[in-house]
Fold this sequence. Notes:
alpha+beta, 2 domains, 3-stranded mixed β-sheet
Amino acid sequence: MATKTKDPVKLTQDFVDELLKQMASEAKATVSLDKANDTLIVNIDPADETGLLIGRQGETLLALQSIIGIATKQLLREWKRVAVDIADWREKQEEHLKSLAESTAQRAIETGEDQPLYNLTPAQRRIVHMTLADREEVTTESMGEGPDRYLVIKLK
């Protein structure tokens, strides 16, 4: 039975190690605590399973993050934010989205036409919004509802 006095890093590390073992995965994980953000950071070295563990548009990575977050809550008896990254996917994804935002904004400026971006998750749309927030010539707007929600980059 876990209590709050147990080390959250060790409990999470033990859980992730067992989870990867049960998945018959060769991946190895390291867990650390980001004290500034009170977040457990789980970095997974995927060995030869990068695509399998990240999944389409990071869906498997996000599912692993949810499972680890729920398990950590059960082990610690309190919520603790958990962030999972696999092979620096999050950092690469953010850089790709920033580049996409800038090039799409440039296309909007050059053509004078609204430029829609489809199939982005809410977190991805947020990165695009934040990337272009200080641009004087363009603005961003989310349109649509639910799974049909998309982002439009247009001239101010």
